[in-house]
């Protein structure tokens, strides 16, 4: 409510109040309004008031100060109602207008695609129908961990697994591959473990190190081979699988709040980093990630990484340039073996928890890497929990001095806050970011949304990550639902799928299709998401044209293969 004084209200023409219209003279003696009067503002700045709520004395003074004028303005504004036939037509047109604005509405399906689409929508409606009578059975309303087994058995999920999904544009180096790759790493010789596996939530995690001789320092170091011999491979493998994931049967109670789950999340990276950064494992793990992506029908990757120190048994520390060369060599070897794969690029993304001197070193390094590997280095980002990390405003001056040929792909808006960490979105846009990682809070910033569309800045959605890391509980409430509905430039990615027992991309595609998207969204949405992963990638024009051609061939083959497996009545 706005409070008024008589001296501040100019004389106006008769205005309509809640129960009558009146002409009043604020300069009249005995004007009833006090600094706390019950006056609000209606349309066009008109004063409105529920006069019956005024004290008796105020009402009598008000009556002397106003002249009551009968009015029928509001009652004469109604129009004749439509006929039912007109209403039905208008409603259909209204729905069509909305659907024409949705992501994928610009695509036209072939006759074969339309037939497959009818089957896809049948499967989708079956999934959604389970939650109408019993909301507890709705996949999108429950935590991903609670519904994982059911999703894996879903015919729709199995179909999405077979679908060519294009590329993953948002994933982090040591959390792309499944836990099975970590289990495999523990079979290497010379791996030492210090500490026991955690028995309860909050217990410290063990430490790992590859070395020819027993590591020095505090703690009891034992060869993993000896621990395996004592407990058996099956038990040890099971302990590794359980430890290197956030998965739990009771996710709503296991992680109290966003800071709590982020602490556990970061602890996983810290725990296995010395294991995965051993040079033979480093190369084996990355190649294994590419194999798992291809098995999930993902054929392109842009991944973020910190470039942690890689070492060998001679305790040699490899430089960042040498580490990137390892990535390049493994990628080229994989592409030779699998020519259907479209490519790999890297975004250097160190932690935002750093001092200014360290940050200056980051910028020097990314400049050097880009000059040496111009086709492989896509650009620069900063990672880490935004709520607790340094804001972009701490770095903007230095970032603006970076060479303009280095692109930005900033994490921004991975928060539930409004007016705090979410303002990193503004900095990211003004710095010229090509894509926005997560963009969860963009819905709270109308000008940010305007600029995203105007500049064609792609939002990298990671729905399962956002739920596991405590930003959203019900996928239907994810802001991606709005981005889908109004054709924002978006892709769906997986962030750190290993830590939530998810596939490289299929689980996020499924959740996006069943949970974020409208019940009416169909095969065109899935196709558009795949195409967007090429369109908004860091590939050049020639690369994109070749990628689209290869992907289209794979899509057409998928449609024909899928049609062989569906009932004839679709």
From TrEMBL:
Pfam families: A_deaminase, A_deaminase_N. Its cofactor is Zn(2+). GO terms for molecular function: adenosine deaminase activity; metal ion binding. This is Adenosine deaminase. Gene3D superfamilies: Metal-dependent hydrolases. It catalyses: adenosine + H2O + H(+) = inosine + NH4(+). The lineage of its organism: Eukaryota, Metazoa, Ecdysozoa, Arthropoda, Hexapoda. It comes from the Eukaryota. Keywords: Hydrolase, Metal-binding, Secreted, Signal.
């Amino acid at each position: 409510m706005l409070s008024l004084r008589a001296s501040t209200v100019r004389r106006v023409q008769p205005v309509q109040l809640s129960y009558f219209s009146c002409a009043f003279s604020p300069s009249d003696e005995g004007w009833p309004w006090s600094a706390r009067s019950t006056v609000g503002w209606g349309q066009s700045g008109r004063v409105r008031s529920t006069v019956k709520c005024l004290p008796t004395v105020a009402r009598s003074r008000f009556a002397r100060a106003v002249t009551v004028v009968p009015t029928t303005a509001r009652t004469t504004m109604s129009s004749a109602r439509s006929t039912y036939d007109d209403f039905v037509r208008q409603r259909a047109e209204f729905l069509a207008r909305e659907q024409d604005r949705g992501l994928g509405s610009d695509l036209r399906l072939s006759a074969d695609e339309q037939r497959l689409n009818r089957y896809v929508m049948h499967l989708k409606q079956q999934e959604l129908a389970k939650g109408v009578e019993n909301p507890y059975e709705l996949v999108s309303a429950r935590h991903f961990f609670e519904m994982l087994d059911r999703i894996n058995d879903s015919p729709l999920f199995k179909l999405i697994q077979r679908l060519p999904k294009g590329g993953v544009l948002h994933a982090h180096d040591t959390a792309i591959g499944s836990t099975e790759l970590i289990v495999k790493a523990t079979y290497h010789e010379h791996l030492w473990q210090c500490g026991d596996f955690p028995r309860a939530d909050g217990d410290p995690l063990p430490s790992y190190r590859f070395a020819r001789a027993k590591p020095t320092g505090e703690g009891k170091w034992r060869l993993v081979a000896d621990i395996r011999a004592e407990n058996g491979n099956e038990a040890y493998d099971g302990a590794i699988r359980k430890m290197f994931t956030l998965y739990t049967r009771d996710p709503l109670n296991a992680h109290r709040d966003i800071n709590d789950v982020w602490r556990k999340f970061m602890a996983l990276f810290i725990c296995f980093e010395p294991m995965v950064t051993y040079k033979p494992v480093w190369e084996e793990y990355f190649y294994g990630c590419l194999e798992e992506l291809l098995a999930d029908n993902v054929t392109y990757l842009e991944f973020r990484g910190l470039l942690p120190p890689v070492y060998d048994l001679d305790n040699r520390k490899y430089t960042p340039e040498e580490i990137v060369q390892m990535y390049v060599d493994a990628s080229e070897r994989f592409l030779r073996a699998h020519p259907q794969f479209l490519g790999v690029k890297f975004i250097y993304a160190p932690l935002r928890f750093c001092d200014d001197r360290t940050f200056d070193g980051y910028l020097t390094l990314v400049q050097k890497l880009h000059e040496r590997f111009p086709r492989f280095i896509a650009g620069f980002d900063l990672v880490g929990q935004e709520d607790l990390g340094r804001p972009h405003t701490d770095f903007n001056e230095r970032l603006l001095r970076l060479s303009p040929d280095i692109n930005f792909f900033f994490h921004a808006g991975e928060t539930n806050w409004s007016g705090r960490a979410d303002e990193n979105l503004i900095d990211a846009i003004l710095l010229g970011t090509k894509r926005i990682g997560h963009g969860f809070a963009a819905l709270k910033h109308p000008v940010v949304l305007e600029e995203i569309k105007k500049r064609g800045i792609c939002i990298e959605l990671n729905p399962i990550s956002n739920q596991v890391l405590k930003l959203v509980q019900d996928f239907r409430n994810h802001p991606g639902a709005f981005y889908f509905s109004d054709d924002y430039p978006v892709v769906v990615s997986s962030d750190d799928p290993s830590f939530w027992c998810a596939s490289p991309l299929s689980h996020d595609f499924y959740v996006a299709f069943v949970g974020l998207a409208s019940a009416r969204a169909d095969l065109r949405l899935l196709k558009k998401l795949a195409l967007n992963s090429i369109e908004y990638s860091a590939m050049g024009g020639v690369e994109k044209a070749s990628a689209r051609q290869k992907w289209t061939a794979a899509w057409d083959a998928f449609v024909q293969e899928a049609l062989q497996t569906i009932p004839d009545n679709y």
